[in-house]
Design goal:
Shape: globular
Order of helices and strands: HHHEEHEEHEEH
Oligomer: single chain
CATH class: Alpha Beta
Largest sheet: 6 strands, antiparallel
Strand content: 25-35%
């Protein structure tokens, strides 16, 4: 199958604005926080921050705040699960770019122990993502997230694993979806 390019149909003003905001949101944590304040208010309130440590390493940190805790003073399971989707989606969004729509299809979380400190999400891509992006077609991709708890203390660089998450995301080029929408008319 051939790839559908956006040059076939010129982008509207709204589509150009969306592409600009998409690129801006992956630029740094400031713009990510501004965009999440508008479109993802719960992610904004949770305080999750993203950090890319290279092309294949991505880390998200969820601070241990009052809004993320449950009644027995541990990180709420819902906060750990929901922010797994945010961390995995932001990893794929930063790799695919603003030309793709990224949607979570399946999320499976295994709770191993309570998290009583900041949570660190290490994203590991199980498949070759760059080849799928280069094809220009829509695709499903499986990623794995290791969720660790930062241990506080002097010189403590050790982290305890508190959970593991397996997620399946669907990535589709916006140009392909626009062409389908126009073909239906």
């Amino acid at each position: 199958m051939t790839t559908i390019k956006s040059e076939i149909h010129p982008l509207t003003l709204a589509e150009r604005f969306e592409a600009y905001v998409s690129r801006l949101s992956t630029r740094n944590n400031f713009w990510h926080r501004v965009c999440s304040l508008i479109w993802l208010p719960y992610a904004f309130r949770s305080g999750i921050s993203m950090k890319s440590l290279g092309t294949d390493r991505f880390v998200a940190i969820l601070p241990f705040r009052r809004i993320n805790r449950n009644w027995y003073n541990a990180m709420a399971g819902a906060a750990l699960l929901a922010n797994s989707e945010v961390a995995g989606g932001m990893y794929l969004f930063s790799r695919c770019g603003g030309e793709y729509i990224v949607v979570c299809k399946k999320l499976s979380y295994n709770f191993l122990r309570p998290c009583v400190g900041p949570a660190v999400y290490h994203v590991v891509c199980k498949e070759e993502l760059s080849q799928k992006i280069a094809s220009g077609q829509e695709f499903n991709i499986d990623i794995e997230l290791e969720i660790l708890q930062q241990v506080a203390g002097i010189g403590a660089s050790k982290e305890k694993r508190v959970g593991r998450c397996d997620a399946t995301f669907h990535c589709a080029p916006k140009a392909m979806l626009k062409a389908r929408r126009l073909a239906r008319r």
